[in-house]
Amino acid sequence: MEILSVANQKGGCGKTTTAVNLSAYLAQKGKRTLLIDLDPQGAATTSLGVKKRTLERTIYNVMVDDLGLADVVVPDVAPSLDIAPANMNLSAAEQGLVNQPGRETIIKMKLKALNGYDYVLIDTPPSLGILTLNSLVACNTLIIPVQTEYFAMEGMSQLLKIIKMVEERLLGSSIKRRYLLTMYDARTNLSKEVAEQVREHFQDQVFKTVIPRSVKLAEAPSHGKPISLHEPDSPGAKAYEQLAAEVMGQ
Amino acid sequence: MEILSVANQKGGCGKTTTAVNLSAYLAQKGKRTLLIDLDPQGAATTSLGVKKRTLERTIYNVMVDDLGLADVVVPDVAPSLDIAPANMNLSAAEQGLVNQPGRETIIKMKLKALNGYDYVLIDTPPSLGILTLNSLVACNTLIIPVQTEYFAMEGMSQLLKIIKMVEERLLGSSIKRRYLLTMYDARTNLSKEVAEQVREHFQDQVFKTVIPRSVKLAEAPSHGKPISLHEPDSPGAKAYEQLAAEVMGQ
Ligand SMILES: Nc1ncnc2c1ncn2[C@@H]1O[C@H](COP(=O)(O)OP(=O)(O)OP(=O)(O)O)[C@@H](O)[C@H]1O
Ligand SMILES: Nc1ncnc2c1ncn2[C@@H]1O[C@H](COP(=O)(O)OP(=O)(O)OP(=O)(O)O)[C@@H](O)[C@H]1O
Ligand SMILES: [Mg+2]
Ligand SMILES: [Mg+2]
User: Does A221 touch chain B (CB under 8 A)?
Assistant: First the structure.
């Protein structure tokens, strides 16, 4: 079971858009896929058409009430794609878990009890708190979306510090990292310069696939669908499909 | 002294771009302005050309070591514009203050001791923790940037809940709210639809000024300058100049 976390504390850099659409294309290619929404904002949950008000149980109950992941899964939000949804209750988890030992390993432990999936993806909030830490501890691959704008490299050193701490103190092994250039605007020098900087710095840890800026990607959530079902011929769709192929190829 | 906080827990919706450029234009119009960077990511600090590694004292020392705001100010980052800068140390403040009574009122109290400014702006992180709470308690006006994309209205209810709690439990009075439509892309229906939704919902609490998507605004931080000094004739610059006039007119 491949576990891919999507994390970067920089706001609005494409975490949710990547978690949702990469999941959808892995599923479309026949891989049984689970998306875990670990963000109290629940944008991934909404993007896949799940009505939060109807949810009796969410990932909050896994984190705090010791339910299993299978107990909260909403199946078939897209072909072969299930979701473990989040709503605002989850923000209480960050507070409630503050002094519990092993609070960063809850998701990792719950995943051990999970069967029947080829891929699990985890969407995270723009912060480096307990929820993101859970995703770092649980994953075999960490996907770091990097918006091709000025602050891309800025926040990176903080994220890399936290990853190093998790590797040394919680895992005793290193996390495989993959950087994904997002919201690339080919008409601007800024995008090109940032992309070059990222590739120069992180070399073959950077996905070949680059996600272009495409308004269809921003519209799809309002239809409750991944781009694969909303506008499969758009440049954004083709890029995420290509990303899924690249992920499966590795 | 007018105190304007810029807050919205949604990542990447234009808080820093607004805090930096609105400050710069208020200052350019002759108002002595202080920008307080209350985000450990310190994007506002970097956007104004301040080299964080050279900082001996930052807003962290105000929050945790009881320094005054005047003790950490970096003067004249632009004409008539000073900044109280932030760096990564500030992330320790959210932890360190967790059990201190009155931890949400620190900035408000420190502002009482501050003289010599017409406007104070406060930039905040994409979260609803102690730093953002300090900005809500301290301000006379709360500016809420709203990116004209699908999740604009989604995260709003959580923010409004927190504002209501602050008004009822910490202030005993209401916070004046102003919504600012940001990253507006006139070529897309999505932007138009979201803008209409926001205006319909919040009516005359929405600024008339709308900030267009403009790559110059994304480039300016890499030059360490506000847009007023980087590209004053660009559409993004004119919009923030107009916003400053609208703020001063109110
Ligand atoms: N390639 C793209 N082209 C156009 N719009 C995009 C693209 N990727 C993401 N967006 C839009 O940009 C906004 C931010 O993206 P997204 O929500 O995926 O970022 P995020 O990192 O999850 O944000 P947060 O930090 O708030 O969780 C959303 O409105 C999204 O629809
Ligand atoms: N009107 C605009 N046109 C083009 N790019 C913009 C515009 N406003 C902001 N940006 C860019 O979009 C990105 C996000 O904006 P910004 O950093 O101001 O958001 P934020 O809400 O402060 O993010 P965070 O939640 O991470 O603090 C930045 O790279 C910024 O330069
Ligand atoms: Mg997200
Ligand atoms: Mg910011």
Answer: yes
Provide the b/e sequence for A76-100 (b: ≥16 CB within 10 Å).
ebbebbbbbbbbbbbbebbeebeee
Structure tokens at B93: 């403040």
Q: B12, A13: Cβ pair inside 8 Å?
A: yes
Contacts of A215 in chain B (CB under 8 A): 185, 188, 190
- C-alpha distances out from residue A127 to B42, B126, B194, B224, B236, Å: 14, 8, 26, 25, 28
pLDDT bracket for residue A100 (50, 70, 90): confident
What does the radius of gyration of chain B's CA atoms come to, in whole angstroms? 17
Separation CA B82–CA B98 (nearest Å): 29
The sheet with strand B141-147 has its strands ordered as B74-78, B81-84, B33-37, B119-123, B2-6, B141-147, B176-184, B206-212
The confidence score (pLDDT) of residue A151 equals 86
Q: What is the mean pLDDT of residues A33-40?
A: 97
CA distance B249 to chain A (A): 31
